[in-house]
Design goal:
The chain is mainly alpha-helical and 95 residues long. The chain is built from seven helices and no strands. 8% of the residues are buried. The model has no long low-confidence stretch (mean pLDDT 89).
Length: 95
């Protein structure tokens, strides 16, 4: 999966517009649009800002699977867990 596809999925999952992301990151809306359309890719600094904004790893944004997760499903579960609130994580771990 390309970077723009991952970014588009995150925007849709979190119900965030490209314009809001651009405003929050002090970037031009056309820059974010270029990423989402896979016409351009962010530099390292912007990549880190986007990862921090969505609370995901840069590996996740780049669709890089490390050896920590043996399957895509495990990696996706880790992403979902990290996106939960502290209370949701506690409840999940109790169950």
């Amino acid at each position: 999966m390309k970077f723009g596809d991952v970014l588009r999925n995150l925007l849709e999952e979190r119900d965030i517009t490209q314009k809001k992301l651009a405003n929050d990151l002090n970037a031009a809306p056309s820059t974010i649009g270029g990423y989402v359309q896979n016409n351009s890719e962010p530099d390292f600094e912007m990549l880190k800002q986007i990862a921090k904004y969505f609370d995901v790893s840069t590996d996740y944004l780049l669709d890089y699977r490390s050896n920590k997760a043996s399957t895509y499903e495990e990696d996706d579960l880790l992403h979902i867990f990290r996106s939960l609130s502290a209370e949701q994580k506690e409840l999940y771990l109790e169950q």
